[in-house]
Amino acid sequence: xxxxxxxxxxxxxxxxxxxxxxxxxxxxxxxxxxxxxxxxxxxxxxxxxxxxxxxxxxxxxxxxxxxxxxxxxxxxxxxxxxxxxxxxxxxxxxxxxxxxxxxxxxxxxxxxxxxxxxxxxxxxxxxxxxxxxxxxxxxxxxxxxxxxxxxxxxxxxxxxxxxxxxxxxxxxxxxxxxxxxxxxxxxxxxxxxxxxxxxxxxxxxxxxxxxxxxxxxxxxxxxxxxxxxxxxxxxxxxxxxxxxxxxxxxxxxxxxxxxxxxxxxxxxxxxxxxxxxxxxxxxxxxxxxxxxxxxxxxxxxxxxxxxxxxxxxxxxxxxxxxxxxxxxxxxxxxxxxxxxxxxxxxxxxxxxxxxxxxxxxxxxxxxxxxxxxxxxxxxxxxxxxxxxxxxxxxxxxxxxxxxxxxxxxxxxxxxxxxxxxxxxxxxxxxxxxxxxxxxxxxxxxxxx
Length: 448
Ligand code: NAP
What we know:
The protein has 448 residues and is α/β, with parallel strands linked by helices. The chain has two domains: 7-125 and 137-250, Aldehyde Dehydrogenase, Chain A, domain 1, CATH 3.40.605; 255-447, Aldehyde Dehydrogenase, Chain A, domain 2 (3-Layer(aba) Sandwich). The protein has 13 helices and 17 strands. The strands form five sheets. Strands 14-15-16-13-12-17 form a six-stranded mixed beta sheet, with helices on both faces. The model has no long low-confidence stretch (mean pLDDT 96). Residues 148-153, 175, 177-179, 207-209, 212-213, 216, 227-229, 232, 235-236, 250-253, 284, 385, 387, 413 line the site of NADP nicotinamide-adenine-dinucleotide phosphate.
């Protein structure tokens, strides 16, 4: 029987008031249920927010270095349990163990960094323009903070949100992704073990539309920190704006790698493989467009396709696996539908483009590393975030054209350039950035 997990509210592990549950499924083997989690509703969120609100005054008055002591303990516990938590993360979201160890390490590093901030929460003093007046600013906590996380970095992303919020004296309610709730549960358990006072950290599982929305809409939540898709981010941003609630959004990407005619091709191929197929292409910063100068197109493409064909697909827990499954069935279908769209749009399929069902992989959600050729910016596969192991090669004739193509997307999360020309590299950094800002402003203006 799979283990049944609970919410964490006011320092107690409790079942949801709704009584409903959902299964956390191993994407490498859909018959393997990692755990059964509460499908919470607005009443559960309300209890968690009330607990966080009641705990706030005492926590904000706890000296920051004393808050840091608890975070240092949590860092230590995370470090001790790194392997164990990485395995849980791989089991519930699929990426290979080396990557989930890196994920937990990010949590350790963030805890360590933020605990240090406990002695550095400096303010500013400013000379006053008025006589006999003294001006200063000090940092004040905001209150109850709602944290909504995606599944692809199930330890790192909750850590980036929880530790900074806590060190600054806020109390939190965390709503993890339904596809990776167990990793967040581990993190919260560690905070409990480290001595976090009751009500300071609360965890409520459930769906985005019900549980997540209830958190966003709760009047006692003063700030929402959201990481996830642009689509959901827009909804949350609008709601927060309407209620004058502070909001931070970290959203999706359609990231590109430029490979210039003078690039070290082997290095560029390494970068493209890791960028496109690491985490099975399910990273906000995954490379999904390869903008390649025609002078090196043949060599780069041949080497990339040859290496992509050798990627070993399988369960992320196996040391022989290079690339794990995709997160769930609907994502698997979405990826395949984009492959069909790409074919119809006239992109040429060089490798992949189908479900991988060899051996044990038929039990899970596996897709072949997929490379398309002859891409151009009007294609949907060059515009939409596919979030899977699919990459499009877009040939160009010059550096200027490469920058133009790079910026021909609404997303602006990350990009890279492979060249030995330092002047060109810095131009890419500067032009890329300023043009993207301009484009984002024009696109936003058009939408309204
Ligand atoms: P998602 O579908 O937007 O979900 C993210 C979180 O929001 C989940 O906890 C989800 O709950 C919840 N949610 C969904 N609908 C909601 C609503 N109406 N109100 C409140 N909460 C709601 O994204 P995902 O599939 O988990 O993650 C992939 C996306 O995250 C990609 O677009 C990726 O690029 C982006 N991402 C960005 C960064 C970054 O730092 N920029 C980092 C990682 C990932 P459920 O799980 O229950 O649906």
